[in-house]
Amino acid sequence: MERKNSVCLLIAICCFSNLALGSQDLEGKWKLLKRSIGVSAMHMALLPNDRIIAFDRSHFGPSNITLPQGKCIKGVELETSDCYAHAVEFDPITRKVRPLTIQTDTWCSSGALLANGVLVQTGGYRLGERVVRYLKPCSDCDWEEDHQNGLISPRWYASNQILPNGKIIVVGGRFQFTYEFIPRTSDSDRKILYQLPFLKETMHSPKIPNNLYPFLHLSTDGNLFIFANDRAILLDYVNNRVMKNYPVMPGGISRNYPSTGSSVLLPVNLSSINVHINNNNKPVVHSQVLICGGTLPDSNENAAEAQIFLPAAKSCGRLTITAQNPKWEMEEMPLNRVMGDMILLPTGDVLIINGAAKGTAGWGAAREPVLNPVIYCPKINRFRILSPSLIPRLYHSTAHLLSDGRVLVGGSNPNVNYNFSALFPTELSLQAFYPPYFNLMSNRSRPSISTVKPGAFLKLKYTENFSLGFKLRSGDLGEIFVTMVAPSFTTHSFAMNQRLLVLELHGAVQKSNTAGDYIVQCSAPPTAALAPPGYCQLFLVNDGVPSKAVWVQIK
Ligand SMILES: *[C@@H]1O[C@H](CO)[C@@H](O)[C@H](O)[C@H]1NC(C)=O
Ligand SMILES: *[C@@H]1O[C@H](CO)[C@@H](O)[C@H](O)[C@H]1NC(C)=O
Ligand SMILES: *[C@@H]1O[C@H](CO)[C@@H](O)[C@H](O)[C@H]1NC(C)=O
Ligand SMILES: *[C@@H]1O[C@H](CO)[C@@H](O)[C@H](O)[C@H]1NC(C)=O
Ligand SMILES: *[C@@H]1O[C@H](CO)[C@@H](O)[C@H](O)[C@H]1NC(C)=O
């Protein structure tokens, strides 16, 4: 008895101090959802019908899933026919997979959801490098490819961000020191390429640019924050003017491809206390960016040329991008990590998942998979190690938040083709990670949203007040807040367009006449600079435990 007690005590202390790495008692849980979806999930997006779209590149021949009904397409880049699908739709609830048809190569491309919920994907490799592809959220829709009105410049390793006017800005790409806007739907949409010398200035060397897939975040003042390598600017993209040059992030670590760290805009809290009216009579609120992991600038050269796998960085930088005199605050993760994905959880915490402790992005260029995710709490600046996965997720792996609060994890293919006998085999599987708010204790406090009013067809207008009805399973009413999460397009460890707002609440939570039901009054975000138009997941959080999301469309 005595012995048992002391073991329990030891575990409790270890959990708290995170010394028990690999222990069964760490928080969080993994589940294999599908051994194979037929493709390796290099790119991943969530549509408003709760289907995941996952796709790979398409110029390497057979995947592990064929096109439907014996269909074949002209092989991309090959003078052959290709009867394999390189994109799929996945339903995280039924676990059904539906093959989709890509005609041109989507390798290392980018994307975003349009305001109407259509997934737009841009660029890729060779014949695909200027193509813009559209996928509507419906149960039998397939890709439509636009070759005529595609990108002005070829874009491979570019990044996208949806803007307050509903257009998407596409920034950079290999040797592309420019940006442009899509979709160009009418003649009045001018076909203009804007120069961005910052992308040339931040290259480490012409051979290893180290600033690809730049991190883009729409600042709460409407300008675009762009981070590349170890530097950042604030861009007025309308007038093509650099508004601010931020200080260099200290530490000499490169953060962008192939030194691949990751980046998030931390939760934007719209509580009226935080919102200020600026000189132009616009409501503004401060916003912060957190960038974690990456590695030394020459790590890729070391791996590729000498098989030397340098350690990944432990450091993160946190910056208030709207401050008068912004300064990087450096923090340490408990684990070194390159190619980690940073995912905003409905609670406002940041999950850092996937990646390796040594090497970089690139074919066979990483070692020592980091199997433990960590969770970062922005409020108290603390990291915690969570329980490990059994599946390494290295180069070309992805993660995405699902509407039920789980995080879907897939991909990993550091091999030239699909190779199931390599040191790190091509991964076709999908797993779900259950963050700590899925534990038994938390289940008692789990709320569920029952009504959104008026929210006709769950459409919200800017500044509009609405009421949110919710039920509690059995636990007590605790601290309540409401978050709105914009879904992302995730690839190469960067979740483009990911954004989490904490909504303004009015008055106290009211008990409604129905037993177990409560009502809380909220305000929709005030401006499109704070919430670009489109579909978002609305979560209600009770004492740190999120409900399932309902989708709302903000206009
Ligand atoms: C993919 O297909 C190949 C060839 O048919 C097979 O050997 C392999 O086991 C499959 N892999 C998975 C993960 O399904
Ligand atoms: C939002 O900000 C308000 C005011 O500072 C604070 O009281 C509240 O706890 C914050 N909410 C969250 C979820 O961080
Ligand atoms: C798979 O990887 C192994 C180890 O790198 C290599 O020897 C083999 O040729 C590869 N197979 C294919 C089909 O590319
Ligand atoms: C908590 O609830 C979720 C969803 O309702 C369920 O999948 C999970 O198994 C529950 N966890 C425990 C530990 O009971
Ligand atoms: C929303 O409700 C609050 C509190 O009742 C009120 O002060 C505010 O004016 C309302 N806003 C709108 C746009 O109706």
TrEMBL record:
This is Galactose oxidase-like Early set domain-containing protein. Keywords: Signal. Gene3D superfamilies: Galactose oxidase/kelch, beta-propeller (2.130.10.80), Immunoglobulins (2.60.40.10). Residues 1-22 form the signal peptide. Residues 42-437 form the Glyoxal oxidase N-terminal domain. It holds the Pfam family Glyoxal_oxid_N. Residues 446-554 form the Galactose oxidase-like Early set domain. It comes from the Eukaryota.
